[in-house]
Amino acid sequence: MTTQHDLQSDTQVFTTIMNLEMNDKDRSPRGGWNSDARLEVLANEIVRYMPDLAQLLVQSGMQKMAA
After folding, report:
1. What's the CA gap between 28 and 52, in Å, rounded?
2. N or C: which terminal CB in the chain sees fewer CB atoms within 10 Å?
3. Cα-based torsion angle of the residue sequence 12, 4, 47, 31 in order, rounded to the nearest 10 degrees
């Protein structure tokens, strides 16, 4: 069973990634989401912690590409 503490820890992952200073060569200005590395990390965390959201994003993306 998931406890409130576990849920809070999971949501902190997204906040940490968003505010984390990345030291990769494609890093965009602080707060920007243009960094490929940052987006890749965020995508992996969404798949890991919120698989239902990941599936919804995949389906929505495929629908937009088909339109």
Report:
1. 29
2. N
3. -20
Cα–Cα distance measured from residue 12 to residue 45, given in angstroms and rounded to the nearest whole number: 11
- 10-residue averages of pLDDT along the chain (67 residues): 60 68 57 66 86 90 88
pTM: 0.47
d(CA 5, CA 62): 35
In whole angstroms, give the CA distance from residue 48 to residue 40.
Answer: 12
Q: Rounded to an integer, what distance in angstroms lies between the CA atom of residue 18 and that of residue 39? A: 10
Q: How far is 31 from 52, CA to CA, in rounded Å?
A: 26
